[in-house]
Amino acid sequence: MGAMESLRWMEARLPEILKDLEAFVRRESPSGDLEGLEAAARFLEEAFGPLEGRLSRKDTPAGPVLLLKREGEGAPVLLLCHYDTVHPKGSFPEPFRLEREKAIGPGVYDMKGGIIALLYALRYAEATGRRLPALEVLFTPDEEVGSPESRPLIEAAAKKARAVLVLEPPTPEGHLKVARKGVGLYRLRAIGKAAHQGVEPEKGVNAILELAHQVLKVAALEDREKGTTLGPNRIRGGTATNVVAEEAEVEIDLRAWTLEEVQRVEEGLKALKPVLPGARLVLSGGLNRPPMEPTEASLALFAKARAIGEALGLRLEPGRVGGGSDGNFTAALGVPTLDGLGLFGGDAHQKTEYVVVPEIPRRTALLAELLAAL
Ligand SMILES: [Zn+2]
């Protein structure tokens, strides 16, 4: 059995794969929508329940977390699947449609398509009696909001795993992901003193003015060459036009490839000193997702996938992307992590999100072969 056999098997099942993809995508499941998440979780139970292994469920305030455990040799390989999407219900004119070579729908690319790819990779292994390593598959409901409930479960499972595969989509060029930037969110508050702008403005300390000085210093902490960016992307302050602004705050999005850069920026933020006499600064927030930095072991994992891709006619490169995923958590624990094993497509988080239908069999076969090769 080789890559071409599994490709032919997948090609023969493309209509069936599309039917499952449609049924799953039609159960719209935006993060936080417990009804929608429940419906999607039930689809997963119906689809994965009959497979070899044991499927269990844990209800959390963010929605159900499902875990599929499949016996096999050695320490388990952990597969990360989130089934929430960023799209509020009804965002698309039609929750699933086919247009020429595209299948379009909320979450079809990020990442319900990847979950369907896994479903067929497992069905293929069972149909052919192929041996797989021990597997644990986590289906989580809150990745798009930072995985507040799932994170401890993901980390606990990762600590026992010998490798982690993330079924997020590949890069827009179709490459796998070996590096992701870390993501931090910080809030800088300036506190001044209110006073009547007309009667005695000299008694006030203007927090907006103070913050204006600080925002430029924050931006100066960027290092574009190293890929470190700081976005002061939300700002608010003041109460009325005739009152010297007593408070103002800015929210800052930090992205960086390395923990070293995160630390440099955090030190810079902590070292900010007020410019106006009488003003104070308060910094809060921190790192939400640590950077996913490539290691020798994760690159070895990638090399395996690349070799399989070659046999399938795919040219895979080690991709690096700015967005975070649950792979950031597992990579930070030192567990070799390979991301981007979902379906090929584009327009993530947009109302035109799609996967390329004729490419589905090759991506599904890639996953099936990679599982067998681990
Ligand atoms: Zn995703």
From TrEMBL:
Q: Would the keyword Metal-binding be found if you checked this record's keyword annotation?
A: yes
InterPro entries, A to Z:
Bact_exopeptidase_dim_dom, Pept_M20_glutamate_carboxypep, Peptidase_M20, Peptidase_M20_dimer, Peptidase_M20A
- Entry's EC annotation: 3.4.17.11
Q: Which Pfam families match?
A: M20_dimer, Peptidase_M20
Q: Which domain of life is it from?
A: Bacteria
Q: Which residues form the active site?
A: D84, E143 (proton acceptor)
What GO terms are given for molecular function? carboxypeptidase activity; metal ion binding
Q: Where is the Peptidase M20 dimerisation domain?
A: 178-271
Q: Which UniProt keywords apply?
A: Carboxypeptidase, Hydrolase, Metal-binding, Protease
Q: What is this protein called?
A: Carboxypeptidase G2
Question: What organism does this protein naturally occur in?
Answer: Thermus thermophilus (strain ATCC BAA-163 / DSM 7039 / HB27)
